[in-house]
Amino acid sequence: MGIVKIADELHEEARRASTVMCRSINAQAEFWMKIGMLAETNPTLSFNDIVKMQLEAAQEPHADLAVA
């Protein structure tokens, strides 16, 4: 595990979102990073497509970051 420094404003946004989504601040930031990585590598997919792809991959044995 490492430490990532982010702007105070982004930390506050993550804190608010984590409360709404019932996640820790770290889990919220990790979720955003994972979705962002997948969006960059799959620019034609929508957010919903990415989430669907991840849900399907989670049902497969040994599924990590699935990339289309």
Q: What is the number of strand segments?
A: 0
Structural class: mainly alpha
* Poorly predicted segments: none
Strand content: under 5%
Q: State mean pLDDT (0 to 100 scale).
A: 90
Silhouette: globular
Distance, first to last CA: 27 Å
Domain tally: 1
Q: In angstroms, what is the radius of gyration?
A: 13 Å
**Tally of separate helices:** 3
What is the N-to-C order of secondary-structure elements (H for helix, E for strand)? HHH
In short:
This protein is mainly alpha-helical. 63% of the residues lie in helices and 0% in strands. The protein has one domain (8-58).
Overview of this protein structure:
This protein is an all-alpha fold. The protein has one domain. It contains 3 helices and no strands. The protein has helices at 8-21, 25-41, 47-58. It is globular and about 35 Å long. The mean pLDDT is 90.
